[in-house]
Amino acid sequence: MVPVPNNNSSSEEQKFQVRKLQISDKNKGFIELLRQLTICDSVSDKDFEDRFRELSALGDDHIVSVVEDESSGKIIATGSIFIEKKFLRNCGKVGHIEDVAVDSNARGLKLGKKIIAFLTEHAHLMGCYKLILLRQELEDFERAVNLSSMTDKSQMQEDIISGHKQFVKAIMEQIIHAEKNLEDT
């Protein structure tokens, strides 16, 4: 079992720790958070438990991470990684980051960046030579930011949009940096 990456240091960061999904997280708004990302129909408790156990059986090859707001008990950010085993590069591994979502009320706290850093570290610990964050997800997010900039011209909205654009840029830089680091190992 690969150790859980430790990316939390200060007391403020302790409030928003990244951790692996737990079975109790369904009752903490996990599915509702996914609905902010894309279509996610109702998931019964049984279906959630079955899928949770199925993913858990994959061990470190498939991780769903979350951030829980300790004050509200709600899941406010998530992301997942699965490790693809290849024949290329001496039977190397590639990490695929997907389904990164931050609750609309928690945006601006850099939780998406924390989730991606956690998953990037996991890929590194698993020995991945490459990391893939589906650019389509990032492009969809960027399109949504650009669309909202056309519909609301208030100063507060412009500040939020500017922050989102900085987030997209920072994530792209982090992807490039992570891929370079993985290539160097």
TrEMBL record:
Membrane-crossing segments per the record: none
Domain N-acetyltransferase positions: 16-183
Reactions catalysed, as given in the entry: D-glucosamine 6-phosphate + acetyl-CoA = N-acetyl-D-glucosamine 6-phosphate + CoA + H(+)
Record flagged with keyword Transferase: yes
EC number: 2.3.1.4
Pfam families: Acetyltransf_1
Gene3D superfamilies (alphabetical): 3.40.630.30
Domain of life: Eukaryota
PROSITE patterns: GNAT
Enzyme class, UniProt record, top EC level: transferase
Keyword terms of this UniProt record: Acyltransferase, Transferase
Pathway membership, UniProt: Nucleotide-sugar biosynthesis; UDP-N-acetyl-alpha-D-glucosamine biosynthesis; N-acetyl-alpha-D-glucosamine 1-phosphate from alpha-D-glucosamine 6-phosphate (route I): step 1/2
Gene Ontology BP term (one): UDP-N-acetylglucosamine biosynthetic process
Keyword Acyltransferase: yes
Gene Ontology terms, MF aspect: glucosamine 6-phosphate N-acetyltransferase activity
The protein's assembly and partners: Homodimer.
Family the entry assigns: Belongs to the acetyltransferase family. GNA1 subfamily.
Protein name: Glucosamine 6-phosphate N-acetyltransferase
Organism: Quercus suber
